[in-house]
Description:
Layout: E1 6-13, H1 18-27, E2 34-40, E3 47-51, E4 54-58, E5 61-71, H2 72-86, E6 94-101
Amino acid sequence: MKGMVVKLIIAAIKPFKLEEVREALTAIGVRGMMVTEIKGFGSQSGHTEIYRGAEYAVNFVPKVRLEVVVSDNLAESVVETIRTTAKTDKIGDGKIFVLDVLQAVRVRTGELNDDAL
């Protein structure tokens, strides 16, 4: 079926898990992703650190944002791979969001949706 439905999977994970997650996604057939260094907070609500003898609040925690666009039939596997690979069983492991993509276009060829991936 030409131009199948595609999904955008956004994951916020701990930075030291990035390479392990990338390798696991490549192994299940993911051919590309976008990665951004971000800061955020959730249940952790930040923490305090001591720098040069003074204690200060760290309100945002460093994370890595992965964006992966895949065909609909691969989306569930991608989510499960990220979830199991990024998991440390500690607070702040991250979140995963799955969104429908209305259209994906490959700039070079004009291919659409699944064909553009």
